Amino acid sequence: MYKLSIILFCLMIHSLYVPSKGYLWGQTSFSINDSEQIELKPRRSSSLDDLAKMQLLFCFQGKGSCLPYDAGVLHEVYRRVPALRAGRTIVAGNSSGSIPAAYFSCFGFDDETVRAAEQTLKFGDRSAVRGMESLGYKITKVLRGQSTELPHSDLREYIAFALGVSNWKDAPTIDEIVRRSSATPRFPCLIVACNQEILEDRHPEDPASPARLKEIDADSLYVSWKPEVYEFYRSHPDLFRRDHPHLILGQDRRIGRAVTFFVDRSLYDLLSLLPDEERVADLRLMSTPSDVALAIMASTSEPTYFPVVRETDFSKVHVGLGQSLKHYVHQRHYCGGFLLPVPAQDLRRMLPGIRVLGSGWRHMPFIARRFLRNALLADCEEIAMRNDWWADMEINPDAEIEQHFELHDLSGEEEFHFGAKRARELLDRDQGLAIFVKPPKWNTAHPRSIPPSFDAIDSYIPNKNEAGLTPLKTMRGLGPLLQPAPKDRP
User: Fold this and answer.
1) pLDDT at residue 362, as a whole number
2) Res 135: pLDDT
3) What are the backbone angles phi and psi of residue 260, rounded to the nearest 5°?
4) What pTM does this model have?
């Protein structure tokens, strides 16, 4: 019976189309001595004033090892949307999408950087991850009591790419790659990572069942103890320390936010202007090569893919609510970016003129959705519906591409062409929306938002909500940002 449960557990994990979220078998501590880095030369960087010019939020959405698909989408979007070439684009990424997001944050969009990205995403060595995604592999490993997670060193090629390190092959560790890099975030960027201690609600005796100790607000993504649990732990502090060694029991039921946004300085300053109770994530500043590498590992480290990653610099994390991170946790671990494929809400509220484009993601079957809710508290689909409400277009795979993704029968070149073809189809129609959406609680521009420096009148609708504020218009397509199809289209 136990082995049957394990097999069912593996089947549920295999059914996830984004990096899986199974049991956490290990954890990785990542630290870099920044004093050993190459001295950085002065470079152009974004500021709050620059953000008024931003027209597009381009979200690279995680799809496991299917990075070539995103390369195909990138190819077509770059040809059709001048905002990329003009430096009027904010990049975001979750899970594997954190890799191109980090790269373009450091180097921006031009013919050379886009060409380099297409080559790496198409032909980079993804064999280790692709082999690990095999159902047979995972079942065999689990039945033997072995971890399925890969070492983070298998990400060396992609982290080196993001950091502009060409001589990475003789670098045995990611630390060494970071030491060889002088790249820093120069363009607005947001990378999603989930906070493992906050989210995990797994039963200690049955990893597939929930402990039911916590609850999450799907609008704010704030996690709290259930009232009776909080009162119990207040009366039994020794049991709390035993059961939750990385958490601190606060003066009220709040535990913390489920998500952290790794951001460059401009977005750190911008999103800090949102009231703490309305912002959906903690903020983690990226200012060095080591910060960028940490962001990629934090976002790609879904369980059964890579071990969780430990935060080493609490001073770069902004929690708000009058507290520092050390008031909530003794340690913070990041366990992937699966929860927010479209991390647009806070940005749209502060930059109401931008449009939101996603490179495409894959909804999960009900059994996987239920399993994740049991293990990591949040109902991913419930949260996805609130986030998809903000998307003006998503280049989601069609049924044919989905089948190939499941079979893993495409070369990088073939997958690239599928992504480019799908992007052409949707860009030609200027239409690509989620089937189900749900209006979020906060859907208006914040009073301290930055007005766009370009014509963006269709960002608003005339009707007002109950509070007398004007909701932001969404699901618009890319509209005036789109150019006609190039004549040299293949």
Assistant:
1) 74
2) 62
3) -120, 140
4) 0.88
